[in-house]
Every structure is written in structure tokens, then in C-alpha cells.
Hints:
246 residues, two-stranded antiparallel ribbon, alpha/beta, Glutaredoxin, 5-stranded mixed β-sheet, globular
Amino acid sequence: xxxxxxxxxxxxxxxxxxxxxxxxxxxxxxxxxxxxxxxxxxxxxxxxxxxxxxxxxxxxxxxxxxxxxxxxxxxxxxxxxxxxxxxxxxxxxxxxxxxxxxxxxxxxxxxxxxxxxxxxxxxxxxxxxxxxxxxxxxxxxxxxxxxxxxxxxxxxxxxxxxxxxxxxxxxxxxxxxxxxxxxxxxxxxxxxxxxxxxxxxxxxxxxxxxxxxxxxxxxxxxxxxxxxxxxxxxxxxxxxxxxxxx
Length: 246
């Protein structure tokens, strides 16, 4: 199609928008490719129909999703556990064949429903000696509720997050103690966290193999990838079965 034609405009816009908003996992890679090929950088854009502000927003969106595409190495983050003293780098300290990276918040209703399901799945995977670890990252800015939820629900995996002092006195942790980096303290932006929960499945090299999962889809993908059968049922489904038998 000829650049500058109405057909060119229609097709480029249609494909870009279709895959930017796709519900199918991994299709954001098509959006990234379209944005990189036709829209960005803004000063060389072929999308003549977009005003500068919209073009800037689209290019920023491309830059946000680019590192999070399926097949890309997961951005490395180093955050503290519940003691706020032990810092964990999941790249070097989690040596498993698979890693489930979970972003969640203690004040998120959907997260509270997913955590028991993930806990049940985690126990089942460990019983089957599956070489996997869960790394759960708390996204709340205040950590009191996060710590309380972890303790009350006995969440057995690696729990990490930032905390107020690390954010308010970032120079101390970045330059003096040198226990983390800016990408880690800005992990909400690094992982484009605007809603929770978000679950990524990583391989042994920490490459993203699946993303934006819930507990049930994570179980199904692991069943397929590992050729195993998981006797996995969501807690509410199990309770319903019990009620039906009485």
C-alpha cells in the first residue's frame, strides 16, 4: 500500500489497535512490532494522522510492553523480604526450572481470591517434586497489611516487596548499601503494574513463557508443559462438591 493513502492509514490503525487490545496472551508482540515499524520514534513516524500527544502516548506504551513480551528475559528485580533486611534477587537466588512471578496487593479483592488457589497449587506442585518456585511481589505502598496477610495465611513461597524507607531514602539503598537498583525500586513501572494480580511463568533462564495468568491457567499451562496431571480444583469448586455429596 502506498504510504499516505487512506488504505495505508486504515490497515495500520486497524492492526495496531486490534493487537494492542487483544485478550490473547502474547499478541501484544504484534502491537509492539506495528508501533516500532510505523509509529515510533515519533520524529520519524509514518502515522501522519496522529497528533503529537497521542503519538507520544503510543510510543511510551510500546516501550512499556516491549521488555514484557513472551520470549523476552523477565526484567531483573531485587527487593526485600518481610524483614526489610534480606534482599532477594530472583535471578541469582532462585535456581529452579520454572519460576512463577506473582504481583499482588493485600487490599486487592481479586488477589485475596487467588492467593488460596495459588497456595493449593503450590502445595500440589511441591508434593509432585516439580522444580518450581513462586516469587510473590507485594505492590502495596504500605507493608503492614501485606505482612499481616502473609502471616495469617501462611503463604509458603518467597515474599518480597519495597517498603516506605527504601522509597523515601532511595539513595541510601542504591548508593550506600548497594542492595538494589532503580529498576527494582521502580518495579511497578518496570512491570507495567496497573492492576493486580498479575502472574508470569518464567523458565530456568528467567525468560517469560506465559503471562497475565490466574491460578487455574497457570496450573493448566504447567500440566501441558510438564506432561503431568494436577489434581487441581479451585477451593470454591471443592466446597461445592462437598455440599453436593451431603
